Amino acid sequence: MNGRLATVAVWTTLAGVAAAAQVFRGGTDTVFLSVTVTRGAGQLVGGLTREKFLVYEDGVKQEITTFSSSQQPIALSILLDTSTSMEYKLGLAQEGAIGFVRRLLADDVAQIVDFDNQPVVVQDFTRDVALLEAAIRKTQAGGSTSLYNALYQALRDPRFAQTASASDEIRRRAIVVLSDGEDTSSLLDYDEVLATSKRTDVSVYAIGLRSREDAPRRGFNEAEFVLRTLSQETGGRAFFVDDARQLPAVYQQIADELANQYSIGYTSKNPRRNGAWRQIHVRVSAPEATARTKSGYFGPKDTR
User: Fold this and answer.
1) What is the full DSSP assignment across 261-300?
2) Which of 57, 62, 158, 208 is the most exposed place for a label (fewest CB within 10 A)?
3) 301: helix, coil or strand?
4) Is the dihedral of CA 198, 151, 171, 293 positive or negative?
């Protein structure tokens, strides 16, 4: 078995035995949200206090129990499309990703995953920026695009749940995925990826890289729908660019957003433990401002 297949086998085994990450910590049913507040064309709004936020679950107002506007430690899974179609764009994509990891703070951790026929972890979670840079630089283009496999395995990776911060604070988790087209080789479908994302507390930030010649293609329209929907459902954001030279600016926007989110927690007023989906909506009292977070979560379920 070659190195790539061996790595995939380990990922598959780990994903199969790991329970999906829950939004609950400790013994209480506390829901934690990462909330981004913007106005206009994505201008970030900072400096808001707890009193400016209202949280609703299935239309019922909830009482905010924890709130922080300070930057929280982050665990990032950075996914790079290295399929054949990326051959002439990979250099610029690498430079954009390297600039991104250089913005990580001391307590942040990240891993690097490349995906073509299959996803492969080329660098596991680390705080060492030099290791992350080296992993990005050694990625090479070739093969087809297994976007769904990459997203699914990143979402289910048990190592994500094990990235506790040094101070035992809740570490926010996010996936940043770059792809230049539709999935062509995954064994999983998009519905499975979306369902899995709803059972984690991982935000997905997606970058769709296309050329002007690719834009009218039906295939990329499908990929655009996938990336946009997955980002919306998880409280992340999708970006679409037609020039790889725009990537550093996009990675900068993602870094700025992750550094300026509000952390909000509440204990659900819903006493039922039937595992049903619960819709979340956050409102913010600030001129022309909009709050964005994940669309909801599956409630606790009694196993007796």
Assistant:
1) PEEEEEE-S----B--EEEEEEEE-STTEEEE---EEEPP
2) 158
3) strand
4) negative
